[in-house]
What we know:
The protein is mainly beta. The protein is built from five helices and 46 strands.
Amino acid sequence: MKRLFFILLVMAVNMLAYAQTTISGSVKNADNFPLQGCSVWFLQADTLAGGCITDHRGNFALQGLPEGEYICRVSMVGFKQADYAFKLVGKIQIPAFTLTEDPTQLSEVKVTADRRDIVKSSAGSLTYTLSEHAKQSATAYEALMEVPRLRIDPLRREILLDSGESPLVLIDGVRREGYIDVLNPEIMESVEVVEVPSARYMGDESTTCVLNIHLKRNKMLPYVNGSVSMSHSVASKYGVGTFNLEVGDSVSSLYLLLQDFYYKDDMSDFYSESQSGDLLRKQTARSEYNCNMIYAGLGGDRIFSDKDYAAFSLSYITQPTQTRNDEQGYAEYLSDGRRSAMSGYQKSDNDFHMVGADVYYKHSFSQNHTLELTGNYSYNGRGSWGERDETNDFFRNHHVIDLDNSYHAGKLNVDYTKVFQSKHALSAGSNTSYSTTDIDDRIDGLPSFLYNRWKEYLYVGVDNNRSAGKFKYTVSLGLDMMFSKADGVKNHYIDVLPSVALTYQFSQVHALTLSYNRLRFSPSLSMLNPRNLSTDSLYIQQGNPFLTPSYQDKVRLSYRLNYKKLFFEPYFTYLYSSKLISAIGFVKDNIYTNTYKNFLCANIITAGASVNYNLPFGNLSLNSSYQKRYQNGMMFEGSTWNTSFAGNFWYKNFSGYISLGYTNASYGRNEKSESGPWSNLSISWNLPKGWQLSFNGQNFLFPAMKQKVWTQQENYYSYTASRMTDRTPMFVLGIRYSFKNKVTQKWRQKKQFYGRDNTLQGITVQ
């Protein structure tokens, strides 16, 4: 209660600050490691004048106190209090505090402070501090539910931003595939949402946002943590099973993760109509889907010295899927009105598997001077078989495609960071990768589609996010070079990818951010492959090996108000997309052939706002946005409205999370799509001795949700509507057992590492 009172009082006092003064400093322990979460008080004549809390680097800063005589008092549970007297005039750098442990406090005091009201602004990112309740969650996904701007689906292990974007998930700055499922929430400290990624992350394409989870950077004496869980649908044949185990000590760790996602006889209803030339076809279908995805991961790390750290990771994924559609309807010639009933079926069998290996090494020349090396190899293989049979009075179609796909890739990343004066950081590095792909249709008799790509990506950046000033910036520049050969067609390009973020923090309550970055999106393998990937009798799908990347220039302006328990952020975004990869086609003998071409550009404006309010027993979040697309040749006109709501609640051993949302429509040049409102509910009950019961409801409020898509091309039109009958709604019961041993904590620096590429997972037969 004292710590909670301190935080609320500090924020109230800081609202009254007016003088242009700055106080900064740092706090560390006797082993010279930074201490995060220390309470820093500023007293004047025995009266509290202001205060703040140290960040994950042990730094603190406060602006706006009147000039005069002060005492700076630093305290933290488990350490002895320290004071420093000084005179404040302009900008002051207080000598670093070194706190010594106080064993008597450790045995008597329990930390119960709620620090959710602390939101830190940096150039292009916001960092949210997790509450003590979140750290006691059973999984990291449950802990993330209290973070504004995030939509969490704990059942599918899915993390999205409120905009629907899937962020690149990092642990302490670097990606580690699968580790979030093993991560103990007790060591999660804060969550950083990066809206403007620096050039360092542009080497991996399509990274539009980053979610960086900061840990306490501590390690226990010999420990064993793990859990076993099982969730299964009440009415349908869907379930998730997991097992994870982590063992370690003060210098090394080893973890194992096993997961199994399965669908059995999952049923859906489809309706489609299409017009190709003079032929109109309408049909309904009942679809059956089966899937069983198994993931196995093994990883570990070791601290060899204060300067050297290494880690490794091995992973394996297999995901066989089968579908069958039983179809019926009719075909009609529009010119003379002839109509014939038709029936048929469509079947597919896809078997995807992937093997990945990572090695990571970090050398610290000094505390602010590091070099990181990451090596990765991955192999993806997929067998895709599809068969379609259609029968009517006009024609009979029987088409089979049997693809054998293989993908090999290797990467080497070099990242260098140097911090100057504990304020400014210089980063530079390279990302070198080579991949080769072989896609062969074993039935068509044509040569395999071969695609080889070599990429060299260089970047450099500077920032002052560690400074205590009001103005913060991040400026970076990436040089992207790619050389490829697709089906004998050679292509190469050199692109410059800048990223700039500027933040001005008027006070601890108000901040303004302006950013610009450039993204590029390379064509997928399906878009490049000129072989037909469709079994439809009236539709041929072919790629274009001459395609080049498309680009997106993004400007974003946002304002942040963080007053006590209220967080409010309105924003405006302008996107300019150039060299867009757009669908084109032609009709011959009433059969439409679809392919792709780089042409045209688009202007997209988005205006929205995010609101979050922290309650004593949870938090409420509301996000809403408006989007309008301007592009020549738009087949459908309209605006996109998106609204989502999330509520996170807890009472004693019960926790609940509800999320609702609705998007009226989404628009492309040739497409329009609609989906009904969605709703998810998650309730958990923490029982004694590590047991937990859970209930999850998918689309429980709006079970009639349908997906609708309209497509309009020259001489071709289609409309499809689908509904997953077994999953709308779907109710799932779960049980989990977790075991953790609690021992004395010791400081330890820990770093994670990059994951792998799922390139072939999207190569399927249509």
